[in-house]
Amino acid sequence: MTNAWAQSDEIKTRPYGRGTADLLCPRCGSANLHHTGVTVYDRGEDRATVVETTVSGGKIKVDPVAHGAMNPSGRRDGLAIRFDCEGCGEEPIELTIAQHKGSTEIGWRYVDF
Ligand SMILES: [Zn+2]
């Protein structure tokens, strides 16, 4: 059975210094998140096709796909940065950015357990 993706709009950080901060894991609060990949969802407004570009593990994958649930934007462009967390395991955690009307929305999605 596959666990469902949970979502959160609470972007918590811990001050690091010199104008930067450490991101905290939305599941366990650990500051030890490892950035493992990025996916860019390129979609013209309400287009049926999304160009999905993933950079991970030294490889680039580009696929035109049908608009679906993984694009964090319901109608336009989106971005997902994937992390593994030292504190709570290797189930994926993604920081998402979505274009929605005139705003940019940011949040987490992660496999909850
Ligand atoms: Zn964690």
Walk me through the structure.
The chain has about 110 residues and is an all-beta fold. The chain has a domain at about 35-110. The chain contains no helices and 9 strands. It has a 7-stranded antiparallel beta sheet, with no helix packed on it. A two-stranded antiparallel ribbon has the order 2-3. β5 (about 50-55) and β6 (about 60-65) form a beta hairpin. Zinc ion binds near residues 27, 28, 30, 85 and 87. Zinc ion binds next to loops.
List keywords for this structure.
113 residues, seven-stranded antiparallel β-sheet, 9 strands, globular, binds zinc ion
Bound molecules: zinc ion
What is the H/E order?
A: EEEEEEEEE
Instruction: Give the DSSP E fraction (strand runs of 2 or more residues).
Output: over 45%
What summary fits the major beta sheet? 7 strands, antiparallel
Number of helices: 0
Poorly predicted ranges: none
Radius of gyration: 15 Å
State the end-to-end distance.
Answer: 12 Å
Structural class: mainly beta
Q: Strand order across the biggest sheet? A: 1-9-8-7-4-5-6
Q: Can you give the mean pLDDT?
A: 93
Overall geometric form: globular
Q: What's the number of extended β-strand segments?
A: 9
Oligomer: single chain
Helix content: under 10%
In short:
The chain is an all-beta fold and 113 residues long. The protein contains no helices and 9 strands. It has a domain at 34-111.
